[in-house]
Amino acid sequence: MAFSPMDKVSTWRKLSVGVWGSPMNPTAQGERELDLSKTLPWLDEVSERAGMKITITHLFVAAIGRMLAKYPDYNVILRRNRPFRRSSVDIFVQVVIKGQSGQADLSGVKVRDADTCSIVAIAEQIASRAKSVRSGDDKEIEAAKSSLRFIPPQLAPYLMRAVSYLNYDLGIDMTRFGLKPDPFGSAMVTNVGGFDIPHALVPLMPTSRVPFLFCLGQIHDRPMAVDGKVEVRPAMRLTASFDHRLYDGFQIGLMTNLVDQIVTNPERYDLV
């Protein structure tokens, strides 16, 4: 096979070759649109019975938990370049924190035992922990922030990778530095719909060792094909990112299809 050099190369192309190396990111991403015509009334009904707001985010945490309970071999973490099965199903939910100056920061709450918790218990976990995080009363989060506050920006990438290696690969207790063992859990859920974002492709955070995440977009009315006819129904664009080193297309299809079924038909599952 013969190759010939290009005579004309743009300035940007020359710069980009110097900025980036060969593609090495193992992330596989995809999206699908969910029909929420049954979901939203169900959430309203459960909210009324529970006496608290139950949201689509809570439902996704419950759905991912049930999915990992059905497929325990997919509840994994990569350690020392080998997959290990986790002993529990914990889901990390990203939370926005607004400071007194009006600036926003990103933090999160780990929902424990999401495979067995009811959706109401999941909502209570998130509400209680999020309140502590936003008020600055969460000791774990504040200890981690204190440890990171004095790190020079030049050293941050190397230190984060070192902490990830010590914590996950070697299993060293990093509690004294404000980092609990496996602080992020089995998966992540983030919701950008509240920011009026239709949908987004969100990257995996390498140092968290979380192998997949779901990003929930804005809920809006969309024309959808139903029994050969066009109907306007509430819908949401769902995107997901997976670590391709741990999941292939077959596994991703099983995982996302089951989550889709639970979210769009929640009344069929034991979630309450």
Your description of this structure?
The protein is of the alpha/beta class and 272 residues long. It has a domain at 30-135 and 184-266: Chloramphenicol Acetyltransferase (2-Layer Sandwich). Helix content is 35%, strand content 25%. The chain has 7 helices and 8 strands; from the N terminus they run αβααββββαααβββα. The chain has helices at residues 11-19, 39-50, 56-70, 119-135, 139-149, 156-169, 249-264; strands at 27-35, 76-79, 82-85, 91-98, 104-111, 187-191, 212-226, 229-243. The strands form 2 sheets. Strands 1-8-7-6-4-5 form a 6-stranded mixed sheet. It is globular and about 55 Å long. It starts with 10 loop residues before the first helix and ends in an 8-residue tail after the last helix. The model has no long low-confidence stretch (mean pLDDT 86).
What is the gist of this entry?
The chain is an alpha/beta fold and 272 residues long. The chain has 7 helices and 8 strands; from the N terminus they run H-E-H-H-E-E-E-E-H-H-H-E-E-E-H. It has a domain at 30-135 and 184-266: Chloramphenicol Acetyltransferase, CATH 3.30.559.10.
The ordered string of helix (H) and strand (E) elements is HEHHEEEEHHHEEEH
The best one-word shape is globular
Please give the order of strands in the largest beta sheet.
1-8-7-6-4-5
Spell out the CATH superfamily of the domain at 30-135 and 184-266: Chloramphenicol acetyltransferase-like domain
Rg over alpha carbons: 21 Å
- Class of the domain at 30-135 and 184-266 in CATH? Alpha Beta
Cα(first) to Cα(last) distance is 62 Å
Proportion of residues in β-strands: 25-35%
Average predicted confidence as pLDDT: 86
Number of helices: 7
